[in-house]
Amino acid sequence: MAMPLRRASNGFFFALWVAVCAASPEFLWQGLFSLFGHFSLTDAAAALLIGAILAFFVEPVLERLRGLGDAPEHPQKSPAFAACEALSFAVVAVCVHEAITVYIAASHSNEQAAENLAKAVAQALQWAVTPFFITIAWMAARGPSWIAWPVAALAIVVTTLVGVMFQWSAHVLVTSALPAVFVLIAGCIIVREQWDESTFVRCARATGVIALAWLALTGTLQLVLWLAHVQAFRIYERAEFWTDLRFYIGWVTGLVVAPAMVPGVPVRLADDSWRRRR
């Protein structure tokens, strides 16, 4: 009983990880765009101060706590290099936090904070639902057909329902659902062929190729329509095109950076060295 629950929880959180990554680039883009509109020296000083606390206190403590386990130690770094590296990442993290806060305008002094937060959550759901259910469908593809096919169909239905619920226009619904179907099919084929620690890296590669091919094709067609002065029919608006590009970047990134669903199996080689099976 414990093993199926563990697999289910791992699958759920892996899919959630991918979904959050897919939704993140648009938040970061819109937030940074809003933040730089009123960024001041005071904001820079605050980011530097908070970043220093994170870099010199919080992160080292967490690193020491992680080192209490069996994880391999990181190579030693000089104090200057370690400080600059940690401070840089900490300042970036603070700026990202501020950007998202500005984007959703969720400060306590804002009377519309709850409404803005609800809108932000709704936007995140629009970007995250499709990758989440497609990832679940990929995992289900390893099972019997009476499970794999309904879950795959559910992923397509949910993608369509999201567009209907949030009142997407017809061309937005098509440009979202059609490449998602191709990604779903490609991932299911990859998962059924081989299930190891690099399975979802291959899924990420397939997703990236399909996304680039789709955006290149539709972008070219839209350019031709624009040059021909055809206004009655549009495949993409300019903002929609770049939004989709950021979405696919986040989706592929999530598949790459999420912890592997299948841990690597160490193999003993002739020279007694240990490596991961590929």
Number of domains: 1
Question: What is the element string, with H for helices and E for strands?
Answer: HHHHHHHHEE
> What fraction, in percent, of the residue positions are helical?
over 70%
Uncertain runs with pLDDT below 50, 5 residues or more?
266-278
Overall outline? globular
For this structure, the quaternary state is: single chain
Distance between the termini: 30 Å
How would you sum up the major sheet?
2 strands, antiparallel
Strand residues, percent: under 5%
Gyration radius, rounded: 22 Å
Count every beta strand, where a strand is a DSSP E run of 2 or more residues: 2
Transmembrane segments: 39-58, 79-104, 124-141, 146-166, 172-191, 203-228, 248-270
Protein name: Transmembrane protein
Keywords: Membrane, Plasmid, Transmembrane, Transmembrane helix
Notes on the protein architecture:
- By secondary structure, the protein is an all-alpha fold.
- The chain has one domain.
- Helices cover 75% and strands 2% of the residues.
- It has eight helices and two strands; from the N terminus they run ααααααααββ.
- The longest helix has 34 residues.
- It is globular.
Write a short abstract of this structure:
The chain is mainly alpha-helical and 278 residues long. 75% of the residues lie in helices and 2% in strands.
SSE layout:
Layout: H1 2-35, H2 41-66, H3 79-104, H4 113-140, H5 145-165, H6 170-193, H7 199-227, H8 238-257, E1 266-268, E2 274-276
Antiparallel strand pairs: 1-2
List its traits.
disordered C terminus; mainly alpha; 75% helix; 278 residues; globular; 8 helices; two-stranded antiparallel sheet
